[in-house]
Specification:
single chain, Major capsid protein gp5 fold, 2 domains, seven-stranded mixed β-sheet
């Protein structure tokens, strides 16, 4: 039975490895394809072994089942004992031994120190690791939900309009035409790399439950996305050569425009001081040509809870829930002035006075550019094999760049 349990556990682990590889976005690498082929073969072999062991176990149970035939009757009476799990069987054996007087007091001493041993029978109770995993949820990337995601095979440059030309006067009869010369520039899309590794022992791979490997791979992807989002929220420069563009950047000298910021009135130093008028001023701070474009709010957790308490003149909350679905079914937490609301834990400040607490991000104003996609690799060789371990790597290259900052706006608390 122990062999059958182990086979089922191994099959579950192999299936989870197959599921994890099938869930990788984009094309699989040669190493991933080789691992997928190995895992698939292992699942098939284990399934066949399990079926064989189940047949053997069933046959053995049929042979060992006692039967009693009464004389004078042509029928046999079959007695089938109930199947008990390991814990139930132990308790049954323990009770039987106590009733028969064959159990020593020291053996059943769970807590007293009378025999010089404390709780020495507790370790005999079998424990089974359940095939489930209670997750600590990773943050959902609000930025990636609010902006355009692109994929490039190499570094690129995107042409930008630096300045629009304007018509300043009428042209008289027979007069020369006015010069009309728009200015252009370009934005460089780079790629910044993150590479992480998790070492897992062979014992964990063989004995663990709850999809441990799948959980590790999922956490690697979530942590990588969170790292890039934290950089997008903390960098103070735009078009930097060493980092992604900061959504809260204060230096836009390398770009032809900057976001339309609204700063709250003096004395409004906390999120609870933000008024409905501040939100309206932020939503319409950019030129009117951009008012009708698709945008999303990104709020700090403190700003979100403060807006939840804001009411209009009729006592109704200004933050409206989604018209359909629930908060669990969407990354958006309702709408504010008609725009969906996202919340980012990366948009926080321990001393909020003078800080940005809300962005109204136009979808095309900022771009997240991934290099192909996340690459997951498995390495059971070299030092790993010698030490009985397997390394799981996750590599990811991406960039975040402002393209048209003037179509977005930001809300800033007063410094004092």
């Amino acid at each position: 039975m122990a062999d059958l349990v182990q086979l089922r556990a191994s099959e579950t682990e192999a299936r989870e490895r197959v599921d994890a590889l099938l869930g990788v976005e984009g094309d699989l690498t040669a190493e991933q394809l080789a691992e997928l082929e190995t895992a698939d073969k292992q699942v098939r072999e284990l399934t066949a072994k399990i079926k064989t062991e189940e047949v053997r176990a069933s046959a053995k149970a049929a042979i060992e089942t006692p039967s009693y035939e009464f004389k004078g009757s042509g029928s046999a009476l079959t007695i089938t004992e109930p199947k008990l799990d390991a814990r139930q069987q132990f308790i049954r054996n323990l009770n039987t031994a106590v009733k028969n007087g064959g159990m020593q007091e020291r053996f059943i001493d769970f807590a007293s120190t009378a025999t010089g041993a404390t709780g020495n029978a507790a370790s005999l109770l079998p424990v089974d690791l359940q095939n489930e995993m209670v997750r600590m949820l990773g943050d959902v990337s609000a930025v990636r939900s609010a902006v355009e995601i692109r994929t490039y095979a190499n570094d690129v440059e995107i042409p930008l309009v630096s300045a629009r030309a304007t018509v300043t006067s009428y042209t008289g009869e027979g007069q020369p035409a006015d010069e009309f010369d728009p200015d252009f520039s370009k934005a460089r899309i780079r790629s910044y790399a993150s590479r992480i590794r998790t070492k897992i022992t062979n014992e964990v791979l063989e004995d663990s439950r709850g999809g441990t490997v799948g959980e590790v791979l999922k956490q690697q992807a979530e942590a990588t996305a969170n790292w890039f989002e934290s950089r997008m929220m903390s960098n103070t420069a735009a078009q930097s050569t060493t980092d992604v563009d900061g959504l809260l950047a204060t230096n836009f000298t390398a770009l032809p425009s900057s976001p339309a910021d609204h700063t709250c009135a003096s004395g409004s130093t906390t999120t609870d001081d933000v008024t409905y008028a501040d939100l309206v001023a932020t939503a319409y701070a950019m030129p009117a040509a951009y008012w009708g474009m698709a945008k999303s709010w990104i709020l700090s957790p403190a700003m979100f809870t403060s807006i939840m308490k804001l009411l209009d003149g009729n006592g109704r909350p200004i933050l409206q829930p989604a018209a359909t679905g629930t908060a669990q079914a969407s990354a958006s937490f309702g709408t504010l002035l008609g725009y969906p609301v996202l919340v980012s834990d990366a948009l926080t400040d321990a001393t909020p006075a003078g800080s940005y607490q809300a962005l109204l991000l136009e979808r095309g104003s900022y771009v997240v550019a991934d290099r192909i996609g996340m690459a997951s690799q498995v390495d059971p060789f070299g030092d790993n094999a010698e030490n009985g371990m397997v390394s799981y790597y996750l590599s990811f290259r991406s960039d975040g760049r402002w393209l048209r900052p003037e179509s977005s706006s930001r809300l800033k608390l007063a410094a004092s």
